[in-house]
Amino acid sequence: MAQDELDDLSFLARLDRGGLLLALEGFPEQCAHALELEEEPPLSPSQGSGFERLIIVGMGGSGIAGELLASSLAADLPMPVSVHHGYDLPAIGPEALVIALSYSGDTEETLSAVKQALQAQARVVCLSSGGELERLAREHNLPFIKVPSGLQPRAALGYLLLPVLSLLDRLGYCRLRAELQGLPQALRGLRERWRADSPEEGNRAKQLARWLYRKIPLIYGVEGTTAAVALRWKTQINENCKQPAFWNAVPELCHNEIVGFEGAGLLPNARVLFLRSSFDHPRNRARIEILKELLAARGVEQEEVFAEGEGRLAQLFSLIYLGDFVSFYLAMLNGVDPSPVALIAELKRRLGHWP
Q1: Is 140 a known active-site residue?
Q2: Is the CB of residue 101 less than 8 Å from the CB of residue 125?
Q3: Which residue of 119, 145, 196, 246 is 20 to 30 Å from 217, comparing CA positions?
Q4: Structural domains in the chain?
Q5: Candidate list 201, 255, 293, 353, residue with the active-site label
Q6: Whole-model pTM above 0.90?
């Protein structure tokens, strides 16, 4: 791959037939619009109070919004948060607030979980661009947040996460209003550095994509701050770049996965990327520094990326946005259109004919 391909806008346009770059560079505006969306009928503070647990239901690009909330922002909430990926909910009752996310509105696992939540008399809020989930919400007069259609679910994270955070803020479960309002402008500043017409020489996203080209990415986050962001990087590389990638989080990986590097020769193309935040626990910072030394001694190449911004939300989105750009440029280096997900479509087609 020629060194200047990522700076050739015509080359990018020829490969990006699905227009993912347009959505990516429009992400700050998506986030601004997402903050204007509210549920209908409105959920009043009295209706939204008194819950003992929050359950986010979603799959794939929709489900990652729940993981980001639970992993990185739960410290701002006064109740436990869990994320459910599947058909059957755990035992719940009226003490639970269930927020169902499905960009298409037709995700069968999410629809199954919503029906169970209704049977359990839990309070349910739904978010989608339409589909069966909207129909179900209208039928049962559930608070429903309608988001614009036409995007890949993984490119609609602003629509999937920010209305939920805004709702929780309005209900008094968190205090994120100032951070939420400042987020679009912060993202616009980051876009100027990572957008397609920013040359690779000073573009960290293009440089990281080049570093990961023809390698096996191992994305490492930190529990409580960047773990779910590492998962997001991994899945974006899977879907956009059509290649394997893996993720884990400190401190858990220090208790098992690091032993695998004793056989580092089995993965000669592995490259470790650490996602770091100023909110990381001091002991986890120490673990990463030691890990860097241990990996270097075994010839494992590594890089680290530090989150930007003052608050948890700003830092979270700075790493997400960088990872999305990296996955796009890596897809370009791989010579693939990042939008289609043929294997997912084929699996769903076959599942539709399954007895």
Answers
A1: no
A2: no
A3: 196
A4: 5-18+193-334 (3.40.50.10490), 22-175 (3.40.50.10490)
A5: 255
A6: yes
